[in-house]
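Record 1 of the preview.
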Amino acid sequence: MARQCKGWSATHFDLAMKILKYVVCTKDRGIKWSAGLDPFGVNAIYATGDTDLAGCTETRKSMGGRVARMNNGPISFNASLQPVVHVSTTGAELQQAAVTALDVVGLRNLLGEIGFLQSKPTIVYCDNQPAIQIAHNEGSMSAKSKHLDIRIFKIRELIKSKQIMLNYIRTQRNLADIFTKALPPQQFIFLRDQLCGYAVFAPED
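->
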């Protein structure tokens, strides 16, 4: 909606009113943190990233979303268009995985400075198997993935240095999916409640 501030229409206005209605009706549902409920442990961070390929109908740039969590609640999140147009889902997911991983590194450093050292690699979830395979493959890259080489090598570096682990998660469980596109009501509520700490995040069920 923010991207339509200059060229809005009656349709955009109606949607904005629906958003305001949702905000008013859910004003009592803030973010909850519950260290004892988090299956990842106390003060341990983990993150998810996702993209909607060519989600912007005007530029065909992909919509990216990411969230880092600790103690069963979010501590950092972002939704924004990726800076370049991707021609494949794998390329868009690799870009988002790299951005999410760099966020995680910053959070690990910050938490370490205030006394919350992360003793294990931070899990970063991605719902694209080819992207994960490319990130873990030390061999040569195909022609299709060479344009992503800097991001791929950075992810590999972070995996090798045991700062992150890049793991698979089903799209239906990926919390970052809520940032990339409009979801059906049932799926939106399911992810929202886990994202905001009203349900325990379960990457596998």
